[in-house]
Amino acid sequence: MTSAYEYLEARFGPSIRVIGSLLFVLFHIGRVAIVIYLPTLAITSVSDMNPYVVASLVGILCILYTFLGGFEGVVWSDFIQGVILLGGAAAIIILGVVHIQGGMSTVVSDALEHNKIISADNWKFNTAAAAIPIIFLGNIFNNLHQYTASQDVVQRYQASDSISETKKSLWTNGLLALISAPLFYGMGTMVYSFYSHESALPKDFNTSSVVPYFILTEMPPFVAGLLIAAIFAAAQSTISSILNSISACISVDINHRFFGKKNEKSEVGFARWMIILSGLFGFGMSIYLIAADSNDLWDLFLLITGLVSVPLAGVFAVGIFTRRTNTFGVLMGLIFGIIFAYIFNGMGGGNSPFYVSIISFIVAFVFSYIISIIVPGKQKDITGLTIYDIKEKSNYVSIVRMKEDDQEV
């Protein structure tokens, strides 16, 4: 199996496969834009460099790196950069606390006074952005998308030597997530306290770049240089992974599927052109973000995830956990999931972007199942394609079956 969306064709047909692949491509082109924009903020927040020039350099270098490189090196570079960034977050917290008068007690006091720490109100089940139940459920659905319906993660599974190694990496990732969440939220709280007491941010400062600004203005030069280099390296690695995945999806799910395979030279050339084109589209969107001077990048990312990607996770889930769904039902479920999420987001009123993810997943799943029952389609052989076919003595089941035609698994 090359593409995650080959499963969708085996389960529902080629149309759902193509739609799933295109949704992945659209979402990750937007993600490329955000990843280019972030290191651009890191540099321009403390210098007079033109942000458009910085974004151009970041974008062009990342496209060239991906064009010339491969995928497996991305996995190791991700690991090294992750270690540096986690260590950097811990160093930022420690250094910041040391320089705040009153130390940790001041940070805790500020957090309590300005509602930066979880309170009883946060546990109430409502649509507010700070509601813990909504954050918890929203993260579940966002991660369901990432680990089941996203080609860039599936390629990491494929880079593993065995199923057991893949399982180990997933457990390790879960452990690191438990460590990284309090680290990064704690870093944000510390920076908030620091600039409330010890220093002031420049007038009309874009708060999306407050952490890079702290790194470059308050930390020792060597540490600051290492962390900023890690931010740029992480951006390069992330973009490389995304562009490789986009290229694989377009090549396998569209070009191979509908136009057939060609000689190796033509295949490589086509894949590289897809890297260039998708990289340029992402770069163009990053220019738009710079012009808009967006202050809410995290909320924007969550919103795009909920609107475009999480409904796709709902389609994978309904395919795996039900037997009666069909192509028409899934197509309608996907459409309704996106529409309902868009309508809810348009209501405004301080609703959490996580709520968009919850609604889009549930609507996609439920509507897919109900419409499939109301409008039954042609029966397909789905042996081996649902959870009910897992062997009792086996911990793994292949979700894509080899066909006798020219499909590659």
TrEMBL record:
Keyword terms, alphabetized = Cell membrane, Ion transport, Membrane, Sodium, Sodium transport, Transmembrane, Transmembrane helix, Transport
Q: What is this protein called?
A: Putative sialic acid transporter
Among the GO biological process terms of this entry, one is: sodium ion transport
GO terms (molecular function) for this protein are: symporter activity
Q: Which membrane topology term applies here?
A: Multi-pass membrane protein
Species of the source: Staphylococcus cohnii subsp. cohnii
In terms of Pfam families, this protein maps to: SSF
Q: Where in the cell is it found?
A: Cell membrane
Can you tell me which family this protein belongs to? Belongs to the sodium:solute symporter (SSF) (TC 2.A.21) family.
Pull one GO CC term from this UniProt entry.
plasma membrane
List where the protein spans the membrane.
16-38, 50-68, 80-100, 175-195, 270-291, 297-321, 328-348, 354-375
